[in-house]
Amino acid sequence: MSARGGTDVRGFVVVRYDDSGAEGVIPHLSPGDSVRLAGLAGTADRARFLSGRTALLRAAAAEGEPAITVDATCPDCGAAHGRPRALGASGPLFLALAHADGAAYATAARVAVGIDAEPLDTPPGRRAAIDDLAPGHGDALRRWTAIEAVLKADGRGLRVSPDAVRVGRWRAALDGRSYRLRSAQTDGCRVTVALSA
């Protein structure tokens, strides 16, 4: 399948914010997501949110789970803006979501998974900030998307210092746990998926 419509060889789904099919996800939203959607004021926020949920559901379907519900209840406050979880899956199913440059990027796997995306035209100032926050060798965007993907797969996100993640070409490590990395350029972005090894 192509990166736009389903999971491809890179292991993720892309849904553009202007995808008219994203509205079709509304009947499949969890109660918390329905409340969140109702509270979104602008058309752009609504498109971003629906594209994200559409991408997550398409990624789950590509993993053989077409009937899940996405639950993103925050463990701290109870609002629907936390880490996405798959409810109703036939077995363990982990979800991850990123947004960049007018698109939602999602992945689903049977092991802990994370994803991040950054526009290829990221300004030099942001690239310098990445180097300050997570120094290392090689392309700053690839390094940063790998770090973010690992932190999402870990489940703690940026509550962990980015410099705690050790990034190699195809693998990364955090707190003694190893992650396989898949990285690609698509739709004007660098996208990296981290899978628990």
Secondary structure class reads alpha+beta
How many alpha or pi helices? 4
Mean pLDDT: 90
Helix/strand order, N-terminal first: EHHEEEEEHHEEEE
Straight-line distance between termini: 25 Å
Folded structure, characterized:
This protein has 197 residues and is an alpha+beta fold. The chain has four helices and ten strands; from the N terminus they run E-H-H-E-E-E-E-E-H-H-E-E-E-E. The strands form three sheets. Strands 6-10-9-8-7 form a five-stranded antiparallel beta sheet, with helices on one face. It starts with 12 loop residues before the first strand and ends with a strand. The N terminus is likely disordered.
Keywords:
single chain; 27% helix; alpha+beta; 10 strands; 5-stranded antiparallel beta sheet; 197 residues; disordered N terminus; 4 helices
Write a brief structural summary.
The chain is α+β, with helices and mostly antiparallel strands and 197 residues long. The chain has 4 helices and 10 strands; from the N terminus they run E-H-H-E-E-E-E-E-H-H-E-E-E-E.
Secondary structure elements and pairings:
Elements: E1 13-16, H1 31-38, H2 43-62, E2 69-71, E3 85-87, E4 94-100, E5 103-109, E6 113-119, H3 124-133, H4 140-154, E7 166-167, E8 171-174, E9 177-186, E10 189-196
Antiparallel strand pairs: 1-5, 2-3, 4-5, 6-10, 7-8, 8-9, 9-10
